[in-house]
Amino acid sequence: MGDGEITKLYPNSRRKNHSYREHYGVEQESYRIWKASFFPDLFYLTKKSQTMRSKSDPLFTELFPYFYNNQSKQIPIKLLKYCTSPYFLTALYLDDGSLSISKRINHRNKKIYLTPHIYLYLQNYSKKELEVLQQHILSTFHIEFKLSKRRDGHGYVLKGTSTDLTYNFLNLLSPITLTCENMYYKSNWEWRINQESKSF
Questions:
Q1: In the sheet that 146-149 helps form, which strands lie side by side, from edge to edge?
Q2: Residues of the chain with CATH 3.10.28.10
């Protein structure tokens, strides 16, 4: 659902099974090393091509039809019932999410107010799919995202509309994300607000 893809099998291919692949930029190599460390027997990095990948494996052949419909990526609705671990939400957020901060300046009181919002930029999925994912996150993790309109993709993303949601969301993920310093700009509010304060 995030940055990766299950590779396709083409006619006359020697491969019997699908594999997993996800490309990354140099600045996110540490994050990919961190992700791969959870499944050391499955994933590895080829740094020259900046790719985290797997070998061909029956697992990905079994998963492929859940994630693709007519070769287009889709949310695996039937598998969501198994996605109850905070690790699922962590990977989804670190891949496709953002900790956005809006700033408001009160010149009279000489104060700057920072308001954090969580976004899941999943606009490549349909509104109907996002509504199912939205409900799953609410019922499983008690985090209530709202649909927010966009001009690209299918026109919608998931957005956290309150400060409390942001804090609850980051606190839920923190036991996992604290081990990934490379992504603190998304996951660690204290670190992020300290960075923001340096720009004033």
A1: 97-106, 111-120, 156-159, 146-149
A2: 75-200
